[in-house]
Amino acid sequence: MSDSFASLDEEARLRALAALAAHDWLSASPDPALAHIVELVARLLGAPAAFVSLVDKDRQVFHAKVGIGLCETARDIAFCDRTIAQDGVLVVLDASRDPRFQDNPLVTGDPFIRFYAGAPLRTADGHAIGTLCLASPEARTVFTEADRRTLSDLARLALDRLELRRLEVARCALQARFEHMAATSPDAIICADSCGQITVWSAAAERLFGYTVPEALNRPVALILPERMRGGNEGDLRRMARFDGGLSGRTVELIACHRNGDEFPIELSLSTWHEDGKAAFGAIVRDVRQRRAVEDRLFRLAHLDALTELPNRAVLRGRIEAAISGGRAAAVLMIDLDGFKEINDAHGHGVGDAVLQTAARRLRISVSPDSIAARFGGDEFAVVLPGVGDPCAAVSTAEAAIAALSEPYDIEGLVLRVGASVGVALSPAHGAREEDLVICADAALYRAKADGRGRCRLFTPDMREAAQRDRACRDGLRRAVERGEFVLHYQPQVRLSDGALTGAEALIRWQHPELGLLAPAAFLTVLDEGPDAARIGDWVLRTACAQARAWRDGGLPSFRIGVNLCVAQFRRGDLVERVASALTETGLPASALELEITETIILRNDPGVVTALRDLRRLDVGIAFDDYGTGYASLSLLKRFPLTRLKIDRSFVNGLCEDPQDAAVVRAVIELSRSFNLEVIAEGIETDEQRRRLLAKGCQEAQGYLFGRPMAADAFAAHYGVGNCRADGRARGLFGDQRVDRELRLKASRHNQTDHI
């Protein structure tokens, strides 16, 4: 290697090698045009041999040649290695006399070279990738300046041909990659020329539109449009074909047409370019039918009630806000179906759903087209009347809805009757916010139901006071959760035969900072409908279990605790895990816990409720049905649900000694419990006569003022001499043991359940 080449730094040498690799000529067949240039060099400059030499890292390759049989030589003996290290032409008149080459095998052996002249082939970025050379076994005495210019000019011509070949190789590689991507892409690829004639039609385009490649090529790109969209106005696709430039780089959606006539939506990602000075364009085409279906399904899930296909509560609120924006008049109707629960209980979930669907259709028809009917939840509906500020007009619409909803329902051959009650609120008269109007309309609805059902009531100020009380209660409950203002009181449960203490029912109280100790009647309804119901229910469960364990350890080994459950605890879906964790955390035996459920829970017709209760029974937890006989619960529920005890409601016990009908109900409940092998307990015992009569009828246990009022844990322990065994009954334990909560959250996540805490 020459000294000058050796002086090149490593970075430049690597760039030179990269330039050689980019041309991909070392192993390619000679270009005919380049071979012609080599012949021209030999003829014009009078040499028997001429060649193009490409210099690789360790060798030189004769790519085009004449008059020489070699294909390549080692780089360290190549004359061209010296040539690429300088800017101008290298001339060796007599190599046998030149100290640089006189010992070179190419000079002393075969082929026998005496004369050599070479011009470097240097790219625009300075990389000398090879040489254009001529050689002869005869020495020369002169190589003129004109000869040098001729060789340099022909070298530039050879270099231009090399660059053209490089560009052609690159274009072919790019075309091959494009064709491979087009053939394997799941999206259709379509290209067209400046006249809008199809030039590329991929395999995916064949599958998407039904036309083969021969059938599609050279046809107008409007081939993919429905017939009615072709011609004078072909929309965005035709604009794209005219190359107005406005759509390049954008994504548009169009209606496309399959060869068989089926129409479907597509999405096109558009691009334009120029080929040989003429515009061309292409599109990646996607079938968006499935995406549209998913979007539609998600929209319906987010905005429509799945059962009735009416707008849901979230949409209703948005429509109310839109209707009253800017202080505009609007009316809100809250509608509740009267007697629906009885039908749902008597005939099952399927019939109940059919009634709700029919009611939704009737409601849509009964209101004006510009009104919005929505399902608020359960058997409650709502209607928004934009622009209606006249109470007479709103009441008239409400009465029309009542009439429509009260018509008989023919469901699966059953003729069923359901009534409707309606509450009406007006904006801005009754409120300027969505929340205020809903509260006022709901308050009016409660008044309508309290007044006998099947009627409409317009909101009045006295209802506002009740609504404000509810709101104040909700706000206070939120603060009570944060400040830990809840406590538990315990009402003793005794054995009627001897008055022995058997257990207690845990009853929540609110230690209000201003109003003092509040009983559940003052806040429980609002709490049950609020977001913290399940959280507070969990606190009650843990606190009661801890207290029961303390009292069992303190001298009441057979003590049983009763805990009321709420709907929200079932709705969350992890009740069994939370009960099990509370028992584990406190060490209370499962048999010492009795969970009390109400008709509201049982009549939900939710299979998950039955499953949860059965799982709890497998843990040996008792299940008591509270207030049996006061509502719509049927005898079949006693068979379906895994109950262990019936609780006779205090309303029947109060009239036990004076009212024969109440006495008959009490006797019937006791007989039922005996028939179903259930225990029975009576609530609200206040007199010894009531105690004696219940005992005579076979009632085993009771609770009531005769035996003790609900009392704080300290008072309870003192009354029964349990000793200093008080567990913390304040709501400081509302959030429970963090370790247990973490375990519950992990369990919930494994079951894909939502924790509302």
Can you describe this structure?
Mean pLDDT is 83; it is low at 1-10, 232-236, 240-245 and 729-757. The longest helix is centred in the N-terminal third of the chain and has 40 residues, at 145-184. The strands form five sheets. This protein has an eight-stranded mixed beta barrel with strand order 19-20-22-23-24-25-26-27, surrounded by five helices. It has a six-stranded antiparallel beta sheet with strand order 3-2-1-6-5-4. A five-stranded antiparallel beta sheet has the order 8-7-11-10-9. 37% of the residues are buried. With 757 residues, it is of the alpha+beta class. It has 28 helices and 28 strands. The chain is 43% helix and 23% strand.
Features:
757 residues, alpha+beta, Beta-Lactamase, Alpha-Beta Plaits, 4 domains, disordered N terminus, disordered C terminus
Q: Largest beta sheet: what is the strand line-up?
A: 19-20-22-23-24-25-26-27
- How far apart the termini lie comes to 80 Å
Mean pLDDT: 83
What's the helix count? Answer: 28
CATH superfamily grouping of the largest domain: EAL domain
The count of strands amounts to 28
Mind telling me which CATH architecture of the largest domain this is? Alpha-Beta Barrel
- How helix-rich are the residues, as a percent range? 40-55%
Which term fits the overall shape? elongated
Sheet with most strands: 8 strands, mixed, barrel
CATH topology group of the largest domain: TIM Barrel
Low-confidence stretches: 1-10, 232-236, 240-245, 729-757
* Class from helix and strand fractions: alpha+beta
Using only C-alpha atoms, the radius of gyration works out to 47 Å
Number of domains: 4
Q: What percent strand?
A: 15-25%
Q: Tell me the name of the CATH class of the largest domain.
A: Alpha Beta
